[in-house]
Amino acid sequence: ILNVEQSPQSLHVQEGDSTNFTCSFPSSNFYALHWYRWETAKSPEALFVMTLNGDEKKKGRISATLNTKEGYSYLYIKGSQPEDSATYLCAFSNNAGNMLTFGGGTRLMVKP
Amino acid sequence: DGGITQSPKYLFRKEGQNVTLSCEQNLNHDAMYWYRQDPGQGLRLIYYSQIVNDFQKGDIAEGYSVSREKKESFPLTVTSAQKNPTAFYLCASSIDGTDRYEQYFGPGTRLTVT
After folding, report:
1. How far is it, in rounded angstroms, from Cα A23 to Cα A28?
2. A5 to chain B nearest CA, in Å?
3. Which of A36, A53, A87, B21 is disulfide-compatible with A68, CB 3.0–4.6 A?
4. Inter-CA distances, A23 with A11, A31, A89, B7, B103, Å
5. pLDDT in tens, A73-92
6. Which of A36, A93, A105 sits opposite B99 (nearest CB)?
7. With an 8 Å Cβ cutoff, are B42 and A46 in contact?
8. Is A104 in Cβ contact with B99 (below 8 Å)?
9. Interchain CB distance below 8 Å, A49 and B108
């Protein structure tokens, strides 16, 4: 079983703050890294799928970077809003065999 | 609307009974997955299927069984052999069997076994 770690486990920020959190994964045999947002009482929704070292992806105020050689990805949220409150999950794959391994998630709470 | 449906949302069973959780998708996706979430833990893969009539065990398949007789359906049976069945169960699908495409998730079923 692969080890995918996310930090911090939880984070409280004020509205307007920018924030970032980390996903660490094994640096060997990288295939893909996924980020999902999971709001309370809803289904997880994909944010990004990243496959190349150095990938940077952006969706509105949310962006992500990927370093496959050192085994980490950062997720950034610029100017956090209360609607950004959710658990953010990353998931790692080291092959094309449908075995995404999820991290434990970072729970973000944005106070108005 | 395209998506994934899971039913029921809440399910209660007595210990020793088998129970089947439903998962249906109308996205025309080839691959489907079952995950389990326990408090304080990430999603763990139970079973997955890349194509009709084929499925593979995930990390925690013991005590579970699945079938994939139709492309749109991937039911999960929690058997009496599963030692800790109480959990939140999520079904997902993706376009194909690689991990280069996002997964789409259903709303989940919370199973409580007493």
Report:
1. 15
2. 10
3. A53
4. 14, 15, 9, 32, 18
5. 999 999 999 999 999 999 99
6. A93
7. no
8. no
9. no
Write the DSSP symbol of residue A9. S
Q: How confident is the model at residue B20 (pLDDT cuts 50, 70, 90)?
A: very high
pLDDT in tens, B45-87: 999 999 999 999 999 999 999 999 999 999 999 999 899 999 9
List phi, psi (to 5°) of B42.
-80, 175
Q: How far is CA B35 from the centre of its chain?
A: 6
Query: Under a CB-based contact definition with an 8 Å cutoff, are residues B12 and B19 in contact?
Result: no
Q: What is the Cα–Cα distance from A96 to B44, expressed in whole angstroms? A: 17
Record: contact B106-A34, CB cut-off 8 A: no
**Three-state DSSP class for residue B71:** coil
